Amino acid sequence: MSNDIFTTLPPIDYTHTSKSNLLEPIHAAFFVPKLENRPQNPIIDSLGLNSSRNTYPLSVNGHVAVKQIPAIGTDPISKLPKSNGTGLVTNEEGKGGENIWLIAASGSDAQGNKLKTWDGLRSTYPKDATEGDLLSEQHPSVFAGAQEFVIPHVRTPNMTRWYLQPAELLEVLMTNLIGHSSRLYEWDSVTESFRKAAPHASQIIIAYGFSEDMSRDIIRQHLGIGTCLRRLDDFILRLRSTTLHSTMLAFLHSLETIVATLRKQLQRHKPVSNTVLSQLWLHYADLETTLTALTEFCNVGESSVPPYKPLPTEAAAFLSHLYACVELHFQSHSPRNVRSALAYLLSTSSGPFFRKVEQSIGIGKAPLPDTTQFEGNEDGLLNANAHALNAFSPPESYPDFFSDEQKAQTSVAARSLKVLAAAEPSHPLLNEYADRRCQWVWHEDELERMFTGQYDERGFQELRLPASSSQLDVLARDHPARYPPELASFKAFDMEPGSQWDATRTSATSLPIDTRPYQAFLAVFPEHLPLSTPTLSHLANAVLHPLQLQSNRLTNALLSLFLSPPLSLPSHLSLLHSFALLGSQSFTYRLRGALFTESDGYQPVGRGTRARTRAKLGIKDARDVAAEAEEIGGPEGVASAAKWGIGLGLGLSERGVWPPGGAELGFALRRVIVDTLDEMVDPDAESDESLFHKKGLPCGTVVKEAEWRLGFAIRDLPVDEGREEWLNPSSVAALDFLYLDYKPPLPVAALITPEILSKYQRIFNFLLRLLRVETVSRGLFNSILKGPPLFTQTPHALGLLRRFRFHAHGFVSTLITYIFDTAIGIHLEGFTSRIKDIATRHNSRTSQSSSRATDEEVNQDKISLAQVFVDDDGIPVADIFEIMTDHSLVLDKILGGCVLRTQQRAISEVLEDLMTIVLRLGSLVRDLKRGALTDDDASSQLEKLHYNFERKMFTLTKVLRAMDDKSELRSLLSALATSDRDYEVLSRNAGGPKREIGLSDLLARLDPGEWWKLEMERRVKAKREKQTHAPA
Predict the structure, then answer these.
(1) Each residue of 703-726: pLDDT tens digit?
(2) 208 and 325: one domain?
């Protein structure tokens, strides 16, 4: 080949931009340069080569051209270290270093192809590497164009897609993130949420480098956080404008603290220029979950729309709502930041409620008044102490984390405190400060310290930074170092004005809201609950343990106070038994003599002792003769029926006047009480209290005070149908006007309430009726056997009278024996023996505790006050209010045994009719002896009374037997002629009341051989046979 061929080739410096039409040169496939006579380092030498970089346009969808992407970065040649010919590189200061790869990574080719190969050593290899093959390595606009081309979208005429640089979109979203409007999204006060601004309402906003879904999620997260913050702020403002109680104020303060802390965290996570949106997504994830949980609790979540559902306003209901929310998040294992925020709200919001409950049961000093001015004035002392303790009354309702037992204990403890303050204002429990308080704790060691009484009551500890932490240290942690050590102080000037307060925890005066308590709580909040309390309900029981300790203290104090003199509650109950229930034979005998008489003599004119003496001696003065002559003025000279009641005491009232009253009756009844009390005092006893232990009678102090605490009174006449019964001396209810009044001392009055006294009064009135009927029944025996013979013209009537009297006397004596032995005796004796047993065990436990306690333990109140008072078998001993509740139940059983309860109205009417028949029988015999009735009239009335008596006895025995058989209740009601309501009542009580109230014993006493049952069957059978053989 000749050299002429090469003359036509282009020059060596030919480029593709040359206007020459000559062909491009063809080079060799490879080239090996001549090595210099020195140590070679091909990699270092290749980095010095630089060639122009070509860019190639990219068409999208055939008609959209992407602009040429400018080169990013600077020329790496200027930043390359100079080679010193030894294979090492030097920096500008001439110092050697081996950081060549770090410097190479910062070059322009770091933004392109980062792959380093030996093929790059070729001189023809383009040193300005092109972009990688992955779309994610391309420029964001290239990636967006590829997405637009590859991923199909639903296009609508009114919607356009608007691409923004991530930095620009982030700058806009940061404004919405803190709850303010931006140029893209503005706040809608109607829906209380962010919406697109009007110019961008029809645009779909997408960030370069992100898909539409990712952009939407990023925007949604920022708008969601801003919406939650804005709604919480509005919620706090709305709630503060209303009248709030202490619990709600504490909650609002805690909520503001949490919101302020979250705002500071948002500002600490404020992005810098090179922040990636996906990185912020992770930073804001915890904040979003916390804010979402708070807004959902406040009923202002993103899914809610105005008007929002209000929170419960009552303290107990609100705490129950908060506790349920906290328990739900603990059970669902929500993130720690969510559980800690809600736990902080529960801890701080419960404080005022806990303080109120503690004050109501005496944890802390209760400001009692000076009681010296009320000495001797029980009413004044009661009013003063009640007024002082009203401010510390227990709440009407309790949150759900209070168990039923704890609610009952707290209520009883509050009552115990008031009773203790009234009984003994100087008691140590009213003046000593309990060192154990209720407070939510979340660590095992704190729980242990609270149980041992060593818990620190200072509350949450303030946030304290380590001693080595300074303001610059915090700045250095939040902002990367870009200064040499000697210039590190200038890094504060790179921050925005005021941002240093967000990254530095300073004194409370530099912050509107002190967030240090919450930050300290958050820093130590555990990942799980204490092992000893694995659930929130167990933790609540442990937190409320101090309430149980204080309740036990008050219970023990009241037991010691009321089971021993001078109050001696058993003595007061024994006194009521002796008088109201006629347990004292002496009182019963004197009361019978004052109110009743077995004599069927005439009713004297006048009242009082003289009238009774004249009647008993048979002495009649002119007034008595004139009164009898007036009665005998009837037709055919037959005297009219007597106008006074049978069996009533002579001289109780004026002739023809009822109910009685006046000084004479009051004096007679007063003497009954005083004489009975005099017999109760033992002059030979060493002390008044010793008599109570020796004979089981009330102690001397109670007996002495009973003289002016116990007395009779006359009640006002009723206005209903019972008024006629009271005004009729012949009625069985003629003495219901008499009222036995008892005024217990001030502390005991809290236990023996008016409701209990009313039950005693009902039983007392019933017993008075029985005494009167028994008096008449006993008087019938003397009237029939003594004096002139009766029914001389009708002998068969005399036999009927004797048999009738025998049945009536058997009924009355059986009923009285059953009432005193079974209905009253068995129930009351069991209750009394239980009180004695409680008193014995309590005194024994107290003495044993005192003997084991050292002086230091007694002073620290660890044995005598804080010790839980339990039985030997582990069952807690009933407190004083449980004793009184049992007392009320015992009285209910006695009322049931006496057939005086409301649901026993059907049976009580039968008993009342039988007692009325006995009284009418006595009146019949008395009128017959006085000549007010003829033998024929008396015989006719006697047969009618006897028939009614037998029919009522048949019904009564049938009632008692039918209590166990529901199938007989309908026929029973037909016999009683009562309503369907009585049928429902008896059906509800069938099968149980008979065994509970002892009516089976009454049936066994009334009809031991089932004579009444057999007689009723015989008569029914005879009546059927008679009807069968009767002519048609």
Answers:
(1) 888 889 999 988 877 776 667 777
(2) no
